[in-house]
Amino acid sequence: xxxxxxxxxxxxxxxxxxxxxxxxxxxxxxxxxxxxxxxxxxxxxxxxxxxxxxxxxxxxxxxxxxxxxxxxxxxxxxxxxxxxxxxxxxxxxxxxxxxxxxxxxxxxxxxxxxxxxxxxxxxxxxxxxxxxxxxxxxxxxxxxxxxxxxxxxxxxxxxxxxxxxxxxxxxxxxxxxxxxxxxxxxxxxxxxxxxxxxxxxxxxxxxxxxxxxxxxxxxxxxxxxxxxxxxxxxxxxxxxxxxxxxxxxxxxxxxxxxxxxxxxxxxxxxxxxxxxxxxxxxxxxxxxxxxxxxxxxxxxxxxxxxxxxxxxxxxxxxxxxxxxxxxxxxxxxxxxxxxxxxxxxxxxxxxxxxxxxxxxxxxxxxxxxxxxxxxxxxxxxxxxxxxxxxxxxxxxxxxxxxxxxxxxxxxxxxxxxxxxxxxxxxxxxxxxxxxxxxxxxxxxxxxxxxxxxxxxxxxxxxxxxxxxxxx
Length: 471
Known about the structure:
alpha+beta, six-stranded mixed β-sheet, elongated
């Protein structure tokens, strides 16, 4: 019995096929999809029919997980070239989960009749090979490798745009603190810092230009700024036509071994120095400790921005000054000054200009007082001072001069504009017989300051039970 092909119901065959079949019109619109195709693509018949290749719902990748451009889709390649596509591996990415379903794809142009010799339908068929791919998944190996793996494009390699990262594995994310979405499209140079060996980087760049393998030990930095050492093995990756398409870097964290080597070398060096001159080593260590103590003391007692003493230093010195004045029957003037409307300066010109104003005022205040007086920045735009005075009139003179000095303080902006400031001053006038504590003196000066503020600013207030007066 001979087989009559014309008598076979082709649609019935396709409907029961285990191969997914999709037929596109010449404009790439889908005109037919069999049940297996709908199952593999996880789409309904209504969603598939009429869809174009340019529809944003499609997300296909090649075997290297590189996202395909629309013109690289099978329907468009066959439509443009007129050639068949045979057994190409292609993956469809689930937009929600990111999972990839792999297919073996075939495609060809089906022409109907001689009148359509230049056009026709594009038939695309695909077999599900996801299980086969999963049996030996390179991506699975890379993702679970203990070493860092980075893949970049081969072009461009010049700074600042190249080479661009196209893949990193989980070990990279764990070591660097970067999520892969933050570095895809960036260059590995974002991991380098000021201590990264420039010569090693130059050797790497030269090897990339020559498309050669290279191995270096390099200092990189994590997202949080933590340094770490890597043993880097960079190699070119070749495409199907033999050209270099990417570079892969397999990197091992060798921070501990490098650190141990550095420590060992440092210890050996120290031992050699001890052997050569023990006394010289002791002297050097003593000097270093002294320098460190000086730095620590400066950090503990001086304001980092203005360079003058801080609150802690001020309170220590004030305690001594009040005790001295009580023993020798002197009068102590304890004061706080605050820049008027400093928030407006910050809001108008920015915090950088505000910092310049604070530095300029600190310089002015420092020049205004004697060496034996106490000055400090105690927080924000507030400064404190303490001085030994003869009488109440001397206190007024100190305050007036300080007001005038503050009024003369100016900061010049880049456009030539000068910013002038005023301050309000509150002071506490302490006689030697007063037995108040430091907290009382500071609170007293603070209350006087707010009284000066309420009275209109750009003035001073001296708190004294027997003779209160403002200026």
